[in-house]
Amino acid sequence: MVSILTTLIQPSSGTANILGRDILKWNKFVKENVGLMLGGDMIYHRLTGYRNLIFFCKLYNIKDYKSKIENVAELLKIADWLNQYVENYSTGMKVKLALARVLLIEPKILFLDEPMLGLDPNIIKDLIEILIDLKKTIFLTSHHMDVVQNLCNRIAFLKNGELVKVDTQENFKKLITEVIRIEIEINDLKKNELIETFSTINFVSDIILNKNNITFSLKNKQSYSKLFEILKDYPITQIRELEPDLNDVFIKLSN
Fold first, then answer.
1. Which of 5, 168, 205, 211 makes a 20 to 30 Å CA pair with 237?
2. Cβ(4)–Cβ(23) under 8 Å?
3. Which of 183, 201, 191, 186 is nearest to 240 (CA)?
4. What is the pLDDT of residues 14-49, one digit of tens each?
5. What is the DSSP string of the chain?
6. Contact indicator for 139, 102 with CB cutoff of 8 Å
């Protein structure tokens, strides 16, 4: 889909509009107004970061590129690394350089294809804040629901190449109000026994173990009394009801 919308390939059928223009009839206009970032790709590892950015500025005939490179480097916090060879960059630094390349052409719409793949949480948080501050239209593809939840205000879910639903986060979360997500903290010695018990009852599902925390779905509020009857025999130190998130929506729509 990203390749079609950015005119890299033509659709086998149908068409689409970018900024109100047909992508087939206004191919040149679309190319001039969109920027495409494919993770940390589209950069040359045997050049310095600065040489990479100069190359792309000249390729796109960008005027006053020195000051623009300086501004973008400061924005993305990579200024101190620009004179280092890209092959010495971390994965996060490569992604930031790839994003800098796209921002230099000042696109009206940014297309980001799995931009956070393989990055550590601190880099992801940093990039999300940067992208929000850009105040641009961003078309993002991701399997990382936390990224989508923190960055996107309108979301589309695809299944087997078909568009399942497009809506706001709030409306998506309403789809799963009937299911209650619970997280409990339990003594380490009893957690496996409790998981085995949960697996035999019909009002508990989607059980996930993370260290001493067990997260699961409760069928409905009427099941609380049955749940507490089971938990009274276990050393539970904490229990809380979780707000629904996009991971829950994803699981529901993909089934």
1. 205
2. yes
3. 183
4. 889 999 999 999 999 999 999 999 876 789 999 999
5. -HHHHTTSS--SS---EETTEETTTTHHHHHHHEEEEETT-SS-TTSBHHHHHHHHHHHTT-TTHHHHHHHHHHHHT-GGGTTSBGGGS-HHHHHHHHHHHHHHT--SEEEEESTTTT--HHHHHHHHHHHHHH--EEEEE-S-HHHHHHH-SSEEEEETTEEEEEE-HHHHHGGGTTSEEEEEEE-GGGHHHHHHHHTT-TTEEEEEEETTEEEEEES-GGGHHHHHHHHTTS-EEEEEEEPP-HHHHHHHHH-
6. no
In whole angstroms, give the CA distance from residue 22 to residue 25. 5
Task: Kindly report, residue by residue over 110-163, the tens digit of the pLDDT.
Answer: 999 988 888 888 889 989 999 999 989 999 999 888 899 899 999 999 888 888
For the chain, list the domains and their CATH numbers: 2-168 (3.40.50.300), 174-254 (3.30.70.260)
- Please report which confidence band the pLDDT of residue 242 belongs to, taking 50, 70 and 90 as the band edges: confident
How far apart CA 57 and CA 200 sit, in angstroms, is: 62
Residue 77 phi, psi (nearest 5): 60, 45
- Dig out the tokens for 164 from the structure: 């399942």
Side-chain-side CA neighbours of 167 within 13 Å: the count stands at 12
Q: pTM, whole model, 2 decimals? A: 0.74
